[in-house]
Sequence to fold (504 residues):
Amino acid sequence: MTKRLTTSAGAPVPSNNTSATAGPRGPVLLEDYQLIEKLAHQNRERIPERVVHAKGWGAQGTFTVTHDISRYTCASLFSKVGTTCEILSRWSTVAGELGAADAERDVRGFSVKFYTEEGNWDVVGNNTPIFFIRDAYKFPDFIRTQKRHPKTNLRSPEAMFDFWAAQPESVHQVTILMSDRGIPVNPMHMHGYGSHTYSMWNAAGERHWVKFHFRCQQPIRNYTNEQAEELIGKTRESYQEDLYNAIDEGRFPKWELNIQVMPEAQAETLDFNPFDLTKVWPHDQFPLIPVGMLEFNRNPDNYWQFVENAAYSPSNKIPGIGFSPDKMLQGRIFAYADAHRYRLGTHYEALPANAPKAPVHHYHKDGSMRFFPQVTGHPDAYYEPNQYEESAKADPSVMEPPLRISGDADRYVQEDKDADYVQPRALYAEVLDDGGRKRLHLNMARAMSPCSDSVKERWYAVLRRVHPEYEAGVRKAAEDLKSGTIDDYPGIPVTSDTPVRVAE
Fold:
């Protein structure tokens, strides 16, 4: 008999798929307690390593503004060409633990902390412009499919493809993951993306929606499954070796920061939801606008202090840069900072890697890691409002312009429309060449090989919606693998001996 899903307090849950939003495009409501509960519980599932992005590599450097974008933002960082600030970046795999091999097929995290004169600004993205899901409500479930089965303690392709087949929006990201782009040679040879839609506003209070792109100034290079398997047999630390040695030898990697810009009102006229994390903005409609250059020229003196203790969160923003109704972004604003409070401690932002270069004044009090003095501006001002003129006060001048929202608060179900298949169809049919499609077919077939027939058929149905040749190509590759016509190199860090199901 089916059990009724409940909260941890025993109350029945009406939906476990969508966040409560104001209108179909959001934003997400803070009153959605079960969303907060799911994210908070996930953040506390493991210690001490990160729940996701556990294996990482980092470097320090400098950002320099090269182009004027003051018509879009009043952020002081972009006030004039030539402005510089220090930066700290961490690149990472998503699914693997601290001991995972660097050269596994996986999405790569791409995070940059800008130490600006108005506080820290974090761009916390990936090496892909999109993601597997568009609603943070499903994030804990998704991540569990990428981690280890509770009984076998092994990765489970069955869980991965079972979830993806039930979330067809994921096919865009899965296609990228299984393509040639799935195993970058190292962090220095891949693009980075803020992925989410953010906002900027200028001195006149005009809002624009934006996306951040970090365009790699080194050649884009990737490994095949065969090359990665051979490399992992020699070293599991190839990314760390390559990155550290390059910087140590003076070969400083660079990325150019670009933005895509959309006027606020235009979002309502598009044939797709621009706040959907599973969609890209077409470059012909929203071309890349150059902003500045990032150069990473220093290896941290202490890896643990500046890379492992680094805490990135989309909640770290500066005046002139804001959020959007992106449902994944809205969930991450809470979840990332909460994960850091749990993993590193209450006052994690006072650690050297996270401490702003700008003055800090706040009323957070005591608790673990209170290793700094009173920062409120007056010794008697440990609360606010107070009578002390020199104590810290809010600054209304940095207030963000009002965000127009409308709609009823509800859990809006994304209907199974062709919209989720349009962009992956274009990627498959128009971007990839014949060789790229053939390798995609084979990579996906290898990744699926341990899965049950029922899960394979559900996933084939998703591929068919994208393009009939996509399904046919993966089926053919799977048949060739089964017959031994071609060699089987693991598409993901599992083997044919990985159990499919362990219990009925």
About this structure: The first strand starts at residue 20 and ends at 22. The chain has two domains: 30-350, 419-483. The domain at 419-483 is CATH 1.20.1370.60 (Hemocyanin, N-terminal domain). The CA atoms of residues 431 and 460 lie 21 Å apart.
